[in-house]
Each structure stands twice: as structure tokens, then as C-alpha cells.
Predict the 3D structure of the following.
Amino acid sequence: MKVSGLRLYALFYLVFLYAPILLLPVFAFNDGTVIAFPLKGFTLEWFRQMLSNDTLGGALTNSLIIACSTAILATTFGVFAARSSTRYSYPGKAGVIGLIMLPLVLPEIIVAVSLLVVLLGMGVSLSIFTVILGHVLIATPYAIAVLNAAFSSLDRSLEEAAYDLGETRLSTFRLITLPLVMPGIISSALMAFTISLDEFIIAFFLAGEQTTLPTYIYSQLRFPKQIPMIMALGTALVLASIVLLTTAEYVRRRGIAKTGAKDTGGFL
């Protein structure tokens, strides 16, 4: 009885979570500007409008630049911080790590306004660069949380064996440590990329005259005739997310196969 109830709850949860996403392609191909049933017919017009929209293209380009930069920087900082917190002891370690992880519990609106005041006070012009700074600030704690688990599960005897065989710390990290924690690095980069791509509040405050994808979508919601094109955009983003997730899982499994590590579960 308990098992049946748990399965029913899980089914209800999955339907509640994914039903809106499944409706995206339904209305994206619907020949009608009103998002409602019954459907009027099949059309590719909204995808054509999406591809020919220069403003949307610029917003998407800005978001991809920001998301890729955020993923690289946040993951790099995360590797350094996770390595430091799991391998070394130094005065004030708990306080330093706690300060780095603080954006996890701070409301984004507070972070955005604070960054806006500080950057304007320093005379920094608002642009894509300032959005990247804000996104790295909020994405780095998530990267650290993932990488902490990866470094904590790493067998230290492998590194010690490399030292005994004459390898330097740098070569040991490059040849031994880095390949073993690569699944965690891929996970943290993917998480930082996703957080940055759909983040709205910080982009809204720090982008200045630049437009990112979330801010563009928000601005178009005021115009009912633009809603079908937004549905088409959402469908394209879902498909891109599936491709990205599949690629990341493939790379993760390849890394596990090369290192001979135990597969404890991944994205798929």
C-alpha cells in the first residue's frame, strides 16, 4: 500500500513538473495566436519568426557569451576552492569557505542591488561584463558544492603513489587528480551554465542597455501576439538542453571508463 502510494505521488510529481514543458511544442506548432485548446492547425511560422528576429538573436548571443564565461570561471574557481577545502588546513578556513558560499542563502535581489550600487560607485559601466561578474558570484558556490563531493571521494593514496614515483604536485594534479574529478567538473560547468542562462534578476539590474535572453522573453510577454514565438523559442531551448545533457553524460561515462572509477550515477 505504501509502495503504491509512493508511486502515485512520484507519477503526480512528474506530471506536474513536465506537463508544462510538454505543452511547449504543442503550442509552438499551433496555427493560432491564442494559447488555448482546441488547436487550429500545424504551422512553422513561429519558428520562422524566431529565426528572423535580430533582437532575439542578439539576446541569445549575449546570453551564450555570459553563460559560457560563467561556466568556465565558476568551475575554475570551484576547482581551486574545493581543492583547498578538502586537502588543506589553514587559519580561518571555515570562515573563508562560508563567505564564498554565502550567495547560496542571500536573496538574489539583494545581491543584484548591492552589485549595482558598488559597480556604479566604482564608475564601472553596466554591460555584459558586469552580468558575468554577478553570475560568477552566484554560480561559484554551486560549483564548489558539486566539486567538494568529487574531491572528497577521491582516493588520496593515488596522489601519494604518484608523489612516491617522482611526479610533481602539478603533474600529479594534471595526470591523476584532474581526470578522476572530471565528472564533477563537467557537472559543475553544466550547472553554472544553466544557472547563468536562465538567470533574470541580476541580468535585469546589471545588463545596462544590453539584452539577455531572459530579459528579452520577459519584455515580450506584454504582447500577446509574441507568445507563440516565445513558445517556439522554449521548444528550441528544451531540445538544446536535451542535447547538452546527453553530451555531458557521454563525456562523463567516457571519463569514468578511461579512469576505471566506479559509476555512482550521473545525469541520465
The chain is about 75% helix and 0% strand. The chain has a mean pLDDT of 83. The chain has one domain: 55-259. The domain at 55-259 is CATH 1.10.3720.10 (MetI-like fold).
